[in-house]
Design a protein that fits this description.
36% of the residues lie in helices and 22% in strands. By secondary structure, it is of the alpha/beta class.
């Protein structure tokens, strides 16, 4: 008898990479949790990927290296993999399987939940509303994150996306309401994992953070489980405990590569760039677990971070992510080369739900108008910058040269921000106003006259005082 009180199967036909193929099974279902016991008594854990005609394909979470098929016994639990859920997760640092890395006891909970989650009836979904302020001024002002939204960060190798993800996880707030962060790191180097732990130490000590760190040398299956465990924990904190939860997941490209590796081990027919054909639905099964539910407190907001190989935004991972999510924050190597942090490509970035969480009654009355004018002016400034490179600045009109001044003010005063200092939205918008006022009033056509008049009246006493 097994630890589950059921039958143990000993006919292991094959061990291949992270997979074990078990023969002669019956009554075993997809996604079922399995316990693998070696002849030495050592125990491993697994999940059923496929079960058909007496065969079960089990992905072994710790990998199959060093196993002898002759001495392996496999028992099935009869239910999917479950993890304890509850507030005991807050303040803990665990690996990608939820095992403690902080020297504490195993995480316990009053109940457990399936890591696969439960689909939410679309009729019971509430539209995202109210902002999640990240403490990153350019993001909050131009691509406002909304509670219940899924907004990815598109980056590439060499850009500080991990620093940005850690900064947002450390600083994000929701206007004084109960708030928690779940950070799921996937495929991290040990140096990166150490950096994340240090950057988030204060929030973890405050009992507001759940930290799951999957390192690059961990079994590949753990990388597939990490975001699912993170979302399972977040759903309970949100919809049962009543907290607003931000889930930061980085890097989703390494997650997709792990999925591709398992798919290849299963000898599945590959699709585009050798990724499995179900990559879209698999990513959707993660991203769509965010949101707000009618008659339930709290919300789950998802911020996935992914790197685009060779900066290719048509690569399957960013391409499919863009179809599922509601906008994107894009990081730019050219802005990074100018020494600006975060290197936000403002013209390529977009939050489609921004108007649900910004403006009167939510942030500031002038927020949406200032953001629109900043982007319009920036687009014109970038055109004139290209023209100046061709004909020289001397050939530009005085107004055109003011746009070049605006471009510099936008980057140096508005966008640039220390990585360890939060910037509130009021400060960010005031910096945006200062950048805009380098332009003649005639060029600020997207700002209502009442806002410009109010700004002129506000600035007049300051001008008199300076005299």
């Amino acid at each position: 008898m097994s630890a589950f009180g059921g039958i143990e199967y000993t006919a292991v036909r094959e061990l291949r990479g992270p997979l074990a193929v078990v023969e002669g099974v019956s009554g075993v279902g997809w996604d079922e949790y399995a316990l693998i016991t070696l002849a030495s008594g050592e125990r491993f854990h697994g999940v059923v990927l496929d079960a058909d005609r007496g065969l079960a394909v089990v992905q072994v979470l710790e990998g199959t290296a060093g196993m002898d098929p002759e001495g392996v016994r496999v028992a099935f639990s009869g239910s999917p993999l479950r993890v304890p859920v509850g507030t005991d997760w807050l303040g803990r640092v665990c690996n990608g399987r939820g095992e403690p890395l902080d020297g504490g006891p195993p995480v316990l909970g009053a109940c457990t939940a399936e890591v696969g989650g439960a689909p939410v009836n679309p009729v019971r979904r509430e539209p995202p509303s109210e902002p999640v302020l990240t403490g990153v001024g350019a993001v909050d002002a131009l691509t406002t994150l909304v509670r219940g939204q899924k907004l990815p960060v598109f980056s590439m190798a060499g850009l500080p996306h991990l620093e940005l993800a850690a900064q947002i996880a450390a600083q994000a707030t929701t206007a004084g309401e109960a708030f928690s962060v779940v950070f799921a790191g996937m495929g991290l180097t040990h140096a990166d994992a150490s950096f994340v732990r240090d950057a988030l130490e204060e929030r973890s000590a405050a009992g507001e953070l759940v930290l799951l760190l999957n390192t690059a040398d961990a079994p590949v299956i753990e990388r597939i489980l990490t975001p699912r465990i993170a979302l399972t924990v977040a759903e309970h904190l949100a919809f049962v405990e009543g907290s607003h939860v931000l889930v930061v997941m980085t890097d989703m490209t390494t997650y997709a590569e792990a999925l591709r590796e398992v798919s290849a081990a299963r000898a599945e027919i590959p699709a585009r760039r050798a990724y499995p054909g179900y990559l879209y639905s698999d990513l959707a099964s993660l991203y769509e677990r965010c949101g707000r539910v009618r008659d339930r407190p709290g919300s789950v907001t998802v911020l996935p971070v992914l790197t685009m190989p060779a900066g290719d935004i048509t690569h399957p991972v960013p391409d499919l992510t863009g179809y599922i999510t509601e906008g994107q924050i894009v990081l730019s190597p050219s802005v990074h080369a100018r020494g600006v942090y975060p290197p936000l490509d403002a013209l390529s970035s977009l939050s489609r739900l921004m108007r649900k969480g910004a403006g009167p009654g939510r942030t500031r009355d002038d927020h949406v108008d200032v953001a629109a004018q900043l982007l319009a002016a920036l687009a014109r400034a970038r055109q004139l910058r290209d023209l100046a490179d061709l004909v020289g600045e001397a050939a530009l009109s005085p107004t055109d040269r003011r746009y070049l001044d605006f471009d510099e003010a936008f980057l140096r005063d508005f966008a640039d921000q220390p990585s360890d200092e939060p910037r509130d939205l009021d400060d960010a918008l005031e910096r945006g106003w200062r950048a805009l006022l380098t332009l003649p009033r005639s060029q600020l056509s997207m700002l209502p006259a009442r806002l410009l008049d109010a700004r002129d009246a506000q600035d007049a006493p300051d001008t008199e005082a300076s005299r």
